[in-house]
Amino acid sequence: MIERRLTELLRQVAAGETSPEDALQRLGNYPVEALEFAQVDHLRPLAQGFPEVVFCEGKTPEQVVEICASLERSSGMFLATRASAAMQQALRARYPRCEVHERARTVFLPPDPPVPPTGSGVILVVTAGTSDQPVAEEAAVVARAMGNRVETLMDVGVAGIHRLLRRSEELRRASVVIVVAGMDGALASVVGGLVRVPVIAVPTSVGYGASFGGVAALLAMLNSCASGVVVVNIDNGFGAAAAASRISHRQDSE
Amino acid sequence: MIERRLTELLRQVAAGETSPEDALQRLGNYPVEALEFAQVDHLRPLAQGFPEVVFCEGKTPEQVVEICASLERSSGMFLATRASAAMQQALRARYPRCEVHERARTVFLPPDPPVPPTGSGVILVVTAGTSDQPVAEEAAVVARAMGNRVETLMDVGVAGIHRLLRRSEELRRASVVIVVAGMDGALASVVGGLVRVPVIAVPTSVGYGASFGGVAALLAMLNSCASGVVVVNIDNGFGAAAAASRISHRQDSE
Amino acid sequence: MIERRLTELLRQVAAGETSPEDALQRLGNYPVEALEFAQVDHLRPLAQGFPEVVFCEGKTPEQVVEICASLERSSGMFLATRASAAMQQALRARYPRCEVHERARTVFLPPDPPVPPTGSGVILVVTAGTSDQPVAEEAAVVARAMGNRVETLMDVGVAGIHRLLRRSEELRRASVVIVVAGMDGALASVVGGLVRVPVIAVPTSVGYGASFGGVAALLAMLNSCASGVVVVNIDNGFGAAAAASRISHRQDSE
Amino acid sequence: MIERRLTELLRQVAAGETSPEDALQRLGNYPVEALEFAQVDHLRPLAQGFPEVVFCEGKTPEQVVEICASLERSSGMFLATRASAAMQQALRARYPRCEVHERARTVFLPPDPPVPPTGSGVILVVTAGTSDQPVAEEAAVVARAMGNRVETLMDVGVAGIHRLLRRSEELRRASVVIVVAGMDGALASVVGGLVRVPVIAVPTSVGYGASFGGVAALLAMLNSCASGVVVVNIDNGFGAAAAASRISHRQDSE
Amino acid sequence: MIERRLTELLRQVAAGETSPEDALQRLGNYPVEALEFAQVDHLRPLAQGFPEVVFCEGKTPEQVVEICASLERSSGMFLATRASAAMQQALRARYPRCEVHERARTVFLPPDPPVPPTGSGVILVVTAGTSDQPVAEEAAVVARAMGNRVETLMDVGVAGIHRLLRRSEELRRASVVIVVAGMDGALASVVGGLVRVPVIAVPTSVGYGASFGGVAALLAMLNSCASGVVVVNIDNGFGAAAAASRISHRQDSE
Amino acid sequence: MIERRLTELLRQVAAGETSPEDALQRLGNYPVEALEFAQVDHLRPLAQGFPEVVFCEGKTPEQVVEICASLERSSGMFLATRASAAMQQALRARYPRCEVHERARTVFLPPDPPVPPTGSGVILVVTAGTSDQPVAEEAAVVARAMGNRVETLMDVGVAGIHRLLRRSEELRRASVVIVVAGMDGALASVVGGLVRVPVIAVPTSVGYGASFGGVAALLAMLNSCASGVVVVNIDNGFGAAAAASRISHRQDSE
Amino acid sequence: MIERRLTELLRQVAAGETSPEDALQRLGNYPVEALEFAQVDHLRPLAQGFPEVVFCEGKTPEQVVEICASLERSSGMFLATRASAAMQQALRARYPRCEVHERARTVFLPPDPPVPPTGSGVILVVTAGTSDQPVAEEAAVVARAMGNRVETLMDVGVAGIHRLLRRSEELRRASVVIVVAGMDGALASVVGGLVRVPVIAVPTSVGYGASFGGVAALLAMLNSCASGVVVVNIDNGFGAAAAASRISHRQDSE
Amino acid sequence: MIERRLTELLRQVAAGETSPEDALQRLGNYPVEALEFAQVDHLRPLAQGFPEVVFCEGKTPEQVVEICASLERSSGMFLATRASAAMQQALRARYPRCEVHERARTVFLPPDPPVPPTGSGVILVVTAGTSDQPVAEEAAVVARAMGNRVETLMDVGVAGIHRLLRRSEELRRASVVIVVAGMDGALASVVGGLVRVPVIAVPTSVGYGASFGGVAALLAMLNSCASGVVVVNIDNGFGAAAAASRISHRQDSE
After folding, report:
1. How much is the pTM?
2. Which positions in chain G have a beta carbon within 8 angstroms of at least one beta carbon in chain A?
3. In the β-sheet with G99-101, what is the strand arrangement from edge to edge?
4. Which of B231, C132, G8, G17 would give a disulfide with C127, using CB separation of 3.0 to 4.6 Å?
């Protein structure tokens, strides 16, 4: 688009229809378009073919439906996170085909026909306790929607370290691990020491008192004694999935 | 002392040297001494035969020496914690027999002749990393001084979980475990899940940035997913030892 | 199970059915099972004969009932903490025999026939004010369920120090003291100075404004001027009971 | 009232009883000046006859000497707090008569001849531990300098509650009590429950780790379970003394 | 009671009915009663003739009524703070004579016949904004109930400094000032500079965002540039009144 | 200046040119009153002709209506912020002419006939995301009500930097920019670097977990790497508008 | 520069020396330069003719001199803030003409010949106490260097409110007010209520204990009860000056 | 080692020298060794051929040299981070061949002969300001030492957004981006929006006042509006490099 306009302008200059001075002036007015043009290349959707994800909190069900509808029209799919029951219902009513994950509070309208996974390897989502599951499911649903193969390993908290060690086979198969844990967040450090692949730690707000809504787990994970463990915001299953998807789609960017 | 005064007063009453009315009046003036007397029983030194421990921070070397000398005169022994190099030197100069633990910053003048351990079982001090050792040593020195048998297990942080698991024999022998760890404090949870005996967690100020001087480890330990793990103040090796000694001397109180 | 497989493998080697090389290879594949086997010994239930405790927060009543039922089937008993009214009702409906403690929000299905206390000595639960009672009751119920004898001393806050001192007889009888206090948390220090046995301090979220949901009491307790006082998370009556039970069952581990 | 005085003044001017110049002079104290005039009455020095107190931190020794000299010229006395060793030396060199309190870091040049105490009753300064003494001494020195009778009760922390109770006679004599305590700050609550007179709590930065430079004591004191305990900033012995002096000079303002 | 027992014991010793040794033993058993005896003197109600104040938060309406009824029976009066609407209703139903202050959430049953104020001088309650009034009213109601004369000065925040200065007459009449302010808490410093009498600052939770539920005001007040301003907990109108009442009844204790 | 006016006034009284009554009336504005008088000049409504703004939080709908009615009577207009739905309804019922902004929770009764903008230039309100709009609208409504021309630029968060850069024309037209952003607050720094005019940053409470109710954005804005960015309280759209209006009306004060 | 290159390119196209296709390709490679070109307009130095300000903290004296020299070469002037004594010396040695402000830790090399102020009106810098002066001086020096007329009003803290009110004349003359205050930060609110012009509040780290390095003042200022007060980072005199300069140069941007 | 013992045991069983029962018993005693054996596989050095990294803080120069020497002996290389000047000197003295990076405080002894990079793609380290360079260099040195190709992009903070956009070519080449920024941490969000590859954000402690030692940047990064940005601890250049190296070596684990 920008390219067309620039081509035309230059043609006019070459043809003498526009003086260099006028052309300069008009170029001077297009800084943004020029920028846009430049950035078309590296501002493509995060995961190719994947539209913006709708974060529903702080929106009305009507707004959510409207935004999802707009995405559906342009891309044939949408993904909504932190959707309330009302939003889930509204989206299901309009798009019976969509996948509603109640506990994860996500609604996903997959492309039709479905697209095979585009990310390499397997993203493994590991949780410390059953209360961490909603966040873990958000991560799993989002990662799958973004074109990744996902496996899960639930309820392997470190207070019973054997529960985790018994699953070392699954840990070894993963190419990225998302560790979801509240309370003491210790699972991230233990897993970080057991695998060599990227480990993304998600602190959850599970706990009470001095867990301070997930701060204890957040700090523990930021101070993990296992080197190279990275952290996202409390309860941010979406962010962990997006980060894992950046990793599993990494070769695309070279 | 109080006992002597009461005995004498009662003797005088029995001998008719003091009237009951006078005696009552004099007793009426001694509520505190009466209390003191009453509390002699349950306000005995924490570990029998063990005098007050001198916390040196915020005192001058002169003050520390004076207090230790006073303790030495009354009990033939003393224990000083958080002693600076100057204090260590001053105490060693005056009491060549005393044991100086530089890294633990403690000075202990043991009773002469030595007294065999009075606490039951073994207190095991476990550390996550080498930087946690000064705190761990303070705990070990204090626990020994208080009449306990002490063993140590160093540098078994959870990022290399096998280092810890390999030592399960030692863990199993302990009757109280003191876990000393900074950074993510995760070791407390793992150990808490491996043993059934009391576990006292000591967060250390080891770390930087979001460890906030040990707060990350403190919070993680307070939120330990292993049930029944208890916590003391950051870097408080002394407190952990005192708690462990309360436990190992517990049967004395029944 | 592991044991059976190992026995069979060794039998095959002895019988020449499997070569040592093959056996080595197959052993190499069972690290986790081997571990599991090894840990059966020291990963026994915390208090012998006592199954996992169900922390109800963040679960649905249906989930809670299902988990309790599973525990009941395997062990003939269960203990659920932080149970909502709905959960209490659901459990009572299914297990009319169970003990529901409304204020403590716990539901306990005792073994049938009842088991006499297994822990040595008496765990004394002391509270500063009447608002601290729900947490204190959780501690008492849990400690009893875990096989301990429990006594309580209520409403002896330090603003009326005589209320506490008047009860020194009860304090002296205890072999472990759990101090439950909100606001200034001062009771832990006073009790810590009055007794020689282990003292476990539980800060409560009682208070407002600068109590910050129990942080004031937590910090005060961590900084107790009485040496050897240990602390658990805010409102964590369960944790204090589990710690006390570790102490009173301590001799079992030697 | 002001209106009446103005009416009368204007009447006098109109009647020639007062010249415009005199009236101006009397008004001279008005608008902005009038405000100042009005406030002369209630903006008198805090304790009558007492000049501004010099807070030395963040000033150079030269500045401190200059300000003190100015105060000495106008009032014949001065009081400097938080004076460094260099400042203490400089002031002593210039005013050999001045009282230097090294530990309290205060320098006081008393009026000559001395003035008897103007405040009613006795201000009692109580400390939990020996490390709290510098703050306690600042409070004592300032309170005396402000014209109050001051007594002290040192090292009566609640971990040995009998040490405090034994001194109930002194507590009972006080008409205001300043409680200086770091760590758990528990002393304020116990004293607040023992006396009926005003209790001013001064948290100190004594402690380490989770004392957070006195925050633990500050919070505990703000949440004191003894009603009517008031609090000043951490280590603010000066402020506590000023508050106590406001109380003991209170009758002056009626 | 204790006295009687001691008298009898001493009589027996004097009469030879009890040996000094036996008496000593029996005295050894009475430490607490002895203490209780000694403390009867200085553990009188805070303000003479005033029973314990009932803090209703965390209690049921039934409990509140029961406690108030018990106080009414023993003292003919009661004061309940932080009473919910239900509690207010329940108390009013049972004690039609009681004074219910809805905004202050207090219920006061005055003695019958009424008792004239016992505190000296006037306690002035000053507020910065209209939203601070509930806390200010709690302070005023409590202070009056405790036997003090109380005046109020509402809505004189420092953003319109003339509103405050115009009321200097009232400020000057006060013998204690309670300053109630949220947000920036600046009123405490301005008032502290305008009067010489004791100033008690009450931060309120009025505000949003970075007021952090009153922490901004609390910190500002603790750091007041006016010397001798003291502070109580956030929203603690009761505590400020109790402190003011300690001050206005101070002469009683000498 | 005051002095000159007083001298002249007194001269006139002395000369009989002015009666004492008239002089009194003119002085009427003095001492405490005089102060008020003096300040009439610089205590005029913030934006000329603009009455006090009603902050509705913590008030009842009845109180809000009453205060607005009082303002309407005196000034023919009013502006209420943080008005609940009930308040909005009540005001609309009584003043059908008033403008209700539901999302901004403001109600504005404009002067009748309308007054043209009095502030110079254009205030541009920029938001990072759609969830920031309620705060942005509050800012816009208030700024307009205070007599300013306002434009808005919505949903130009920095994660898609081209969305912002594309609008550089609008940025360039602004004479004051209000940046409204939650989460990472990064928009303030980018805008601060793009324009030379004053930039007022409003952190919003949009976010979750470690956004801590807007603290993350607040801190980021206070630490903006663009120099000269100023900040107001979290969600304080009103304050930003008032600050912008102070700026756009600035020339009035010289 | 960009402009020249574009002009040349267009000239070549017009002259047939470059084909439109080649030109397009070359333009396609300049997205950034195109942007730069566009932004030349609104990315001019903050205050016209004013180069980047050098923040010295975290740099070596050599680096500082090198950067300043580079600025001097390009613009004939420089301004360095937070310069250590060593940096001040090094700059003075090389540029004897430069102005060194020791207390403000700034070094300014003014243009030669000097440039008259370019900002409209007067920026007034007001401080609460003498310890706030270094920050206030930084603000004053920077504002002057940026082309503004600056006045100062020192030591007018609100504890002696008359000191401030007496200077209302100076306050009224200001067209922007910078309020510099530590401790309780109350001065910002009082000044904000006294003037109608923009007020920029600078919290300082002056204070101790619960001032938390300026946090108390920062929070108080963010919660100012005077509407439209804006805030910069703690001790950020530079930022306040830059903000004030944005305001006083505001008309330039329209 | 374990392998040898198992082989021997199995050989004995095969040879009939040990019965299966005895062997089982002995295996039962080796759970940990069995584990160790099993974990050899997945507990290999993080990056193949790379030994443990030495974190020097809290160690003495002697200890550092000793540990490095041990690593050198076993692996022919070592990497030490956070090395003080003294440690750098000591290591250089002993290993003249080692690379000392003063600003990054790292010492690296590369393998000899050098090993070509093993990680795929390019790790790009981007910094906001010059003060962030030490942390960025630590990241770069560590990443290179771990076998990665590394590029850097310095001083492209968002206050001059064009500086960053001009370098979009370099951003586009990266396969992992490490963003190092203090103060407002905004660079992470802008870069996160510009690239599709993994972005690791490192907050630095650069800043003052309300940056709280890097907390402002940390929180901003955790709340990044760009999805999929992950975060490590403050100043943790090492951790970011380790995480990036996990990513770039990821394919190895499948």
Report:
1. 0.86
2. 3, 6-7, 10-11, 13-14, 16, 19-20, 23-24, 27-28, 31-32, 34-35, 37-39
3. G54-55, G78-81, G106-109, G99-101
4. C132
